[in-house]
Amino acid sequence: MKRADNRKLHMVGLRDVRDINQTVFLHLIRERQPISRAEIAKATGLRAGTVSAIVNRLIREKLVYEGVAGPSSGGRPPKYLYVNAESAYVIAIDIGVRDSVYAVSDFNGRLLTQRAMLTKGEPEAFLRSLAGEIKDLIGAQYARTRFKAVGVSIPGLIDRDEGTLVISPNLGWKDIPVRAILEEELGYPVYVENDANAAAFAELWYGPLEEVGVRTLLFVLVVEGLGTGLIINGELHVGSRVGLGGFGHMSLDPNGPLCSCGRRGCWETLASNRATLTRYRAVTGTSIGSVTDLISLAQQGDQAALETLRATAAYLGEGIANLAHGLSPETIVIGGEIAGAWQIIGPLIREKVQSRYILPSRINLNIRPASVQRPSLFGAIPIALQHCFHPAQRFDALKRAVTPRIKLPAKVAGR
Amino acid sequence: MKRADNRKLHMVGLRDVRDINQTVFLHLIRERQPISRAEIAKATGLRAGTVSAIVNRLIREKLVYEGVAGPSSGGRPPKYLYVNAESAYVIAIDIGVRDSVYAVSDFNGRLLTQRAMLTKGEPEAFLRSLAGEIKDLIGAQYARTRFKAVGVSIPGLIDRDEGTLVISPNLGWKDIPVRAILEEELGYPVYVENDANAAAFAELWYGPLEEVGVRTLLFVLVVEGLGTGLIINGELHVGSRVGLGGFGHMSLDPNGPLCSCGRRGCWETLASNRATLTRYRAVTGTSIGSVTDLISLAQQGDQAALETLRATAAYLGEGIANLAHGLSPETIVIGGEIAGAWQIIGPLIREKVQSRYILPSRINLNIRPASVQRPSLFGAIPIALQHCFHPAQRFDALKRAVTPRIKLPAKVAGR
DNA sequence: GAGCTTTATCTGCAAGGATGATAAAGTTCG
DNA sequence: CGAACTTTATCATCCTTGCAGATAAAGCTC
């Protein structure tokens, strides 16, 4: 059925050149605004005339506007360019096990409004009430605003093409047509993504400037469960259409605790918030509400709390060591409440990873806590925004077209 | 030091359009030769005139030639096009722990000559004697041939930029400037790659035609050690410059056997050929030379051998289950001698993976043995050939240029 | 204020693919 | 046999892209 002959190849044309360069410009301007045409020319290597042409096209399309003139550096002063933040707005939704957050972001990816509500009730009813709140917010504050898209991040297995949540053990949801529901309610295109993936995306867009060149990043999101998001070559790794569960169910110990997936010793059963709190309760006999509370206790000198966090850090380190060696990312980011205890867990995680690495000296692995407070929410913004730009998809088409294939001769020469 | 301002952006121009389309054509012709201009037009969606222009350019550059006219399908008969196999030759070298193989391949990626020699002696001396044999072969059979590149696949950690083998525990080599040595001896550009990565590449290029659309593939190479190669989006995942060790040192059991890396229960200590043979010896008290021999024994009804293979299959399945869930590749390929026992190990591996997967029904995961006998050798061919085509690199440049970045506001709104 | 630098624009050019007409070489069928 | 139709490949023309070099605008320096 999947015949080679039926595959449509996507070729490249002048329009692609224009679109790609235009998008590069847009991102460049957004990244370094304010910026002058001359600076763009220097950064891109394009001729000044070409730069003007492209910039003026962007201005004509109202994606960019010309601000005041900047200070002269010994010659004609530059005219500063800015991304027109009002040219596109998106809605970001982060559905968590306890609470869900929705937010409005402008074209610059900046959060304008952010509100939370408890996650409760039947999935569909909850989503509709969430949409209702969003519609209220829009009516009250953004009546004249045109939204381009909605980005949703959810803990669980996502069918990206359909925009449905296939299953989420932690939410207790199954087969929820998230996109269908929200598109019906809101009337904007909805893009659904796994929370850890969104979080990884957030680091890519909002992460520290020193990491501008980073192309490969692993995000470890520690919440009720434990998820991982993987950025490879500056792109979210999504694997096959359905199925990217992340490394939460990587088994680290065949004799470990039983996991909801039926196996033993999954990473999630050892290092998630639930595992951490359970472990604390097992040791002390007292229940505690959240990992944030546990961190407070540890910082106040509670030895049991401290040891519990240290144990979690060790398990995190174990799993990260496996992945660090296997994927060799440039950066590993840990997010979730536990990242608030970085002074405690950071060194332990690093130590674990270093002890496993064969060549710690030559490998430049950066391990750090997340740079935003709720990465899965911040990630939902680029999830929505990226769909305002087509070229990413076009790149994919190009790459697909170039994968070669060699027919093997009937007999293979033995050795 | 890594300032954003210093990053040179790579823009797109007319030349890129031409190069990319030309390369797409070349691959298309190679994949489906013989093919007519009209068929190319249908496959690409380009106009007949455009197709002619590009094809004639390729013919002028001697990369393609026009063969005899094909059979008419009711009108003017097509002129068949073929890739000029003689337009480029490459040398492939696969350095193994026991033996090493070198081969000559034409531009179609077809093996023309293949020879083996034992891997022994000091690394540098061995590489020079290997180069000497290759030079002899060239002198005898390919005196008039122009080679474009040399691809080398080695088990171990590679510094791709330098072309050096950083370390190979299994070979017992360390800090060997493979590229420098071979380029000095042979005079052609040398590209060095990890053996499992090369093997993954081999599946991408030589794999079954049904998998033409496959973009994500995991190769598990079981030799003395155990390595993994990962293809993501049709591209080899190489991670940071130095460091991709693969998942061989993923720990599956904190109480497992001690590994050379200092940890316990690494996948390699459980499922590699060495582990398998050690396990057989531990059970039976008798030593055996190779896994191939072990498979023969099992097929002859030796219960101990059969059980040994089954145990290895279970461990392979364990590791693969971890990775399948975390990376969600479309295809997982297992290579090495043990793949010869696919009837025995295949079902067991599948079972292990299925039992771990939360949703086996909806996930379309293809697990199969390697489609070539020595995948690391076959992989060395595309390693060399791919450098004859620039666009892959250019795509990378494009993507890098488009990665956006948002400056965070000073204060992040709490929730 | 002359000369220089920096910034932005303008005008013509080369090269890519798109388009539609045309030629070439068969098949089909009355 | 030959007119009509198909399939395949080419040609001349057009639009768009980025490129190049000249030119204009606006400030600094001495």
TrEMBL record, chains A, B:
KW Protease (keyword) present: no
Name of the protein: Transcriptional regulator/sugar kinase
Domain HTH marR-type per the UniProt entry, residue ranges: 22-65
Gene3D superfamilies: 3.30.420.40, Winged helix-like DNA-binding domain superfamily/Winged helix DNA-binding domain
Transmembrane segments: none
Keywords: Kinase, Transferase
Molecular function as annotated in GO: DNA-binding transcription factor activity; kinase activity
Nucleus found in the keyword field: no
Family: Belongs to the ROK (NagC/XylR) family.
Any Pfam family hit: ROK
